[in-house]
Amino acid sequence: MEAAPDTTEPRWLDPDEQQQWYAFAYVLIQLPAALEARMQHDAGIAHFEFVVLSTLSAAPERTLRMSELAQYAGSTLSRLSNVVIRLEKRGWVRRRPDPSDGRATLATLTDEGTDTVTAAAPSYVDAVRGLVFDPLTKAQQRQLGAVSQRILGALDAPCPTDLAPPGATPSADLG
Fold first, then answer.
1. 143 found inside a domain
2. How far is Cα 72 from Cα 75, in angstroms, rounded to an integer?
3. What is the pTM of this model?
4. Total Cβ atoms within 10 A of residue 52
C-alpha cells in the first residue's frame, strides 16, 4: 500500500525568525573561516586539527576511541581518519587498537602533540575571545551557552565539555 502524501503545510519562518536564522546561519559560515585563517596564520595548523588536538588534550589519559573523537569533533570518521593520519605523521597523535575491542582504534595525543596544542591555545583563545565573547555582555555570553546547549540537545550531540570529569584541566587550557 502506498503512503499518502504529506499535505500538511510547512511551518514557515516568520519575518523575525527569518532574520534571526539568516544572522545565525551566516555566523556558522563566517566564524569557522575566521578561526581557520587565524590558526593557519598564528599556529600553522588547521582549525580542525586544533579541535582534534584540544579534544584529545581534554580526554582522560589524552586518549579517545576514533569514533568518540569524531563525535566530539563534529566530524565523520572518514574525515577524522585522514586528519589523524596527518597528525600521526607529524608525531602529534598515535593510533593503536583498543585492547578492550580490537575492532576499535584509539587515538592518543603525544607529548609533542600536547606541546603543539598548548602553544597554539593562546592564539585560539584570543581569536575566540575577540570574535565571540568580547562583543557580548556577560548576560549574552550566558545566553549563548544556554542556547547552544539547547541546540546541541535538539541535535542529540554531545558537548565537548562533557569529555573531562568535573574539575579536570585539559593540557591545552583554554580558560
1. yes
2. 8
3. 0.81
4. 29
Give the model confidence (pLDDT) of 50-84 as tens digits: 999 999 999 999 999 999 999 988 899 999 999 99
63 neighbors 55 (Cβ within 8 angstroms): no
Handedness of CA 59, 108, 70, 100 (dihedral sign): negative
What are the cell numbers at 171? Answer: 593540557
In-domain check, residue 91? yes
In this predicted model, what pLDDT tens digit does every residue of 109-120 receive, in sequence order? 999 999 999 999
Distance CA 110, CA 97 (A): 16
Residue range of the domain that includes 61: 31-159
Q: Which residues pair with 125 in a beta bridge?
A: none
Task: Give the integer Cα–Cα distance in Å for 119 and 109.
Answer: 14
Assess if residue 138 is contained within a domain. Answer: yes
CATH of the domain at 60: 1.10.10.10
